[in-house]
Amino acid sequence: MEIRHLRYFLEVCQYGSILQASRHIYLSQQALSRAIASLEQELGLTLFLRTPQGLVLTEAGKRMQELAKPVVDSMDTLIEELAYSSAMAKNSIHFGTTSALQFFIPPSSLLQFKNQAPNIHIDFSEHSFDQCEDMVKSGELAAALINGPVVDPGLVAFNLAYRQRVAIISKDSPLSGKSSLRLQDLAGQRLVSNINNRCYDNLCALCLSLGFTPNIQRVSDNSTVYELCSTQGYVGITIDFVLLVPLPHYSNLITLPIMDSELSYPLVLITSPNQYKRKIIQRFIKHCCAIISEKNVILPQYPFYF
């Protein structure tokens, strides 16, 4: 029995779906299905019942879940401790970051931090926010800069700043007469955003709690958001700091703030409890705070015109 199969099994338990679990662990649906089938065959047990509503744990599956979790947790602790010891012995440190934070913490500021610690080998690598969390937890990264809420309660999360979600709307829209928007104002609107997976799931959950399912199209960049808002009447959802960079001119668009605090956009440094105690991590936090404070400026008064 391989430890990775136990990890896969617990992920499927959490999501109740092969598809959802496969997206979270960046494994194909087919490969995850084969791994679960292999585990069931090895044990000679049926762990899940396949129903129209999704996967349901059998009694054997429930017992397996109880026994597997402490095994996987112990292995995670072992990996983290060994990785931490190895990094300390080599006098090296690895940081991660997401591409969405380059406006606030550009590569030049990361290079500046490296130059301030010439006796320590420091490197930076770019990953998705999910990968950053997993790699910090496993010890592959000492710390990571991410955007969006932190899921794992076992990590230390240091909030560097909060930015606001904003809506891009046509001047012809009935919403344009408002000074700000609430999330429920978006019910029935055609929405478009390049929002990431975690923030998308959070948005959908918030809308469902208010009694509606958001009609949202996801795209890969803000330029497409602006174009659909301008030409097809979509309501765009983005982060306010994109308004601080040069924008295309759309005379028929304005931007209004979305006031729901649950939709705020946190900029977070995550690390493990052990790593958080290190002086180099504390220095990195102070460095990031100083850099972000220079960029974290107040936007012009709303409505903001393109």
Structural commentary:
There is one protein chain. Strand 1 (48-51) and strand 2 form a beta hairpin. The chain has helices at 3-15, 18-25, 29-43, 59-90, 107-115, 129-138, 197-209, 222-232, 273-276, 279-295; strands at 48-51, 54-57, 92-97, 121-126, 143-147, 156-163, 165-170, 190-193, 215-218, 235-239, 253-257, 265-271, 304-305. The strands form three sheets. It has a six-stranded mixed beta sheet, covered by helices on one side. A five-stranded mixed beta sheet has the order 4-3-5-12-6, with helices on both faces. Strands 1-2 form a two-stranded antiparallel sheet. It is built from ten helices and 13 strands. By secondary structure, it is of the alpha/beta class. 27% of the residues are buried. Helix 1 (3-15) crosses helix 2 and helix 1 (3-15) crosses helix 3 (29-43).
